[in-house]
Amino acid sequence: MREANLNPLNEQVAVVTGAGRGIGAAIARKLAALGAVVILCGRKLEPLESTAAEINRADGRAQVLPCDVTDLSSVEAAAQHVDTSYGRADILVNNAGVGGFGGPLHQMPAESWDQVLHTNLRGVYYCIRSFAPIMVRAQTGHIINISSLAGKNPLPNGAAYAASKWGLNGLSYSVAEELRVHHIRVSVVCPGSVDTELSPHTGKDSTKMLQPDDVAHVVGMLVTQAPQSFVSEVLLRPTMKP
Q1: Residue 216 maps to which CATH number?
Q2: Domain containing residue 210
Q3: β pairing state of 184-191 and 37-42
Q4: Known catalytic residue: 161?
């Protein structure tokens, strides 16, 4: 019997934003376990270093690369570093995001709106703008955008967050059509409530909620698909309503 490939992403370079904790850290660990060299991006150095140390202790390969997705020059510098150091960027996971669940939209400060939209939507544009040319040059790649079921359904008292995710879904579908001619697959993952620090999840039973590893599992499936197809969207729900 033919031995299964235990490292299907062998030597591929994966960039994960918001990789210091929660969903991003789980995705980074999963991609490293599949054999990728994982570049951990985020604004805060300490959690990135903690995630990298965990991966490296498990015989994975991880590098910390501080990056603020709301700053185009920071993202461009990160892409240049990856290109110079590795000459490739096979996988880009746009995971960095912030919540915005402070109450009705008409009471939301303008600066809070800007923070949510700049991080959750503009930041993805900056990352695709900076990393997609590396993939186009190679005529291969995966871009996975971590969205939310809030991008499919109403979210009272979280309208800015919902708007950013509805926008991210539309961006993902459109960019997928733009880049498929270059053999680059663009997918969007829309989880329900995940047990992380992003939002309070008031009234929900955390034992029934999705876990970060559930989202990471989906990302692992997406980047190991057969080359003749791609899954454009995944809606991920908990088995039991929390």
Answers
A1: 3.40.50.720
A2: 13-236
A3: unpaired
A4: yes
Query: How many domains, in total, are found in the chain?
Result: 1
Taking the whole predicted model, whether its pTM rises above 0.85 is answered as yes
Residue 197 pLDDT grade (very low, low, confident, very high; cuts 50, 70, 90): confident
What would the two tokens of residue 144 be? 């996975």
> End-to-end alpha-carbon separation of the chain, Å?
43
User: Which positions ≥6 away from 24 have C-beta within 8 Å?
Assistant: 16, 17, 18, 40, 42, 51, 93, 95, 96
Q: Is residue 83 part of a domain?
A: yes
Asked whether residue 3 is domain-assigned, the answer is no
Instruction: Name the catalytic one among 86, 125, 126, 161.
Output: 161
| 73 belongs to a structural domain | yes
Q: One-letter amino acid identity for 161?
A: Y
DSSP result, 179-215: HGGGTEEEEEEEE--BSSSSS--TT--TTTSB-HHHH
What span, in angstroms and rounded, lies between the C-alpha atoms of 172 and 186? 7
Mean pLDDT is lowest, of 50-64, 91-105, 189-203, for 189-203
Q: What share of the chain is helix, strand, coil (3-state, %, to 5)?
A: 45, 15, 40
Q: What is d(CA 113, CA 116) in angstroms, rounded to the nearest whole number? A: 5
CB atoms within 10 A of CB 41: 31
Domain assignment present for residue 1? The answer is: no
